[in-house]
Amino acid sequence: ITSALTPHISAASQHPFAMASEKDAALASDSPTIFDKIINKEIPANVVYEDDKVLAFRDIAPQAPTHIVLIPKVKDGLTGLSKAEERHCEILGHLLYTAKVVAKQEGLEEGFRVVINDGPSGCQSVYHIHVHLLGGRQMSWPPG
Ligand code: TR5
């Protein structure tokens, strides 16, 4: 009966360990994401800042009055922060500094929060490293 009701779910994907290895594969993958389409202007985004290395645009599902995503234009293997290597130090610093520049541009004088989600436990959903800039409301601690 179960298989008749769920013909689209393969036996492998129902297995919890199979699910884990699929996630690991996604984590290790350097394949294009939705952010590449935004960088390449294949899909529109509400861009608030751009330079030769970084693009910043409004999050499609904002978690605060101001919610901006900052990404490197070239991923260079940086699917997430856990994949960072020494060669990435410059772009990581640039991303963080740009978060401050955009926060000022957005008028977040009272403060703001930056977040980098990493991996399944960190709730990362797009495997192209990005910094969330959130502001315009009182944040709470600890985060969820
Ligand atoms: O969950 P993590 O930390 O990986 O953050 C990914 C973020 O990308 C989420 O906050 C999403 O809401 C955001 N996101 C996803 C899409 C998207 C976007 N922000 C702007 N524009 C977007 N488009 C056009 N498509 C998305 N799938």
Please characterize this protein's 3D structure.
There is one protein chain. With 144 residues, the chain is an alpha+beta fold. It has a five-stranded antiparallel β-sheet with strand order 1-2-3-5-4, covered by helices on one side. It is 31% helix and 17% strand. β2 (54-58) and β3 form a beta hairpin. The model is unreliable at 1-20 (pLDDT under 50). The protein contains five helices and five strands; from the N terminus they run ααααβββαββ. It has helices spanning 2-5, 11-14, 16-28, 34-39, 89-105; strands spanning 47-50, 54-58, 66-72, 113-115, 131-135.
Quick tags:
binds ligand TR5, disordered N terminus, 31% helix, alpha+beta, 144 residues
* General shape: globular
**Overall pLDDT confidence:** 87
Bound molecules: ligand TR5
SS strand fraction: 15-25%
Structural class: alpha+beta
Low-confidence stretches: 1-20
Radius of gyration, CA atoms, in whole angstroms: 18 Å
Count of individual helical segments = 5
Strand order of the largest sheet: 1-2-3-5-4
How many angstroms does the end-to-end distance come to? 38 Å
Write the layout of secondary structure elements.
Layout: H1 2-5, H2 11-14, H3 16-28, H4 34-39, E1 47-50, E2 54-58, E3 66-72, H5 89-105, E4 113-115, E5 131-135
Antiparallel strand pairs: 1-2, 2-3, 3-5, 4-5
Give a brief outline of the structure:
The protein contains five helices and five strands. It has helices spanning 2-5, 11-14, 16-28, 34-39, 89-105; strands spanning 47-50, 54-58, 66-72, 113-115, 131-135.
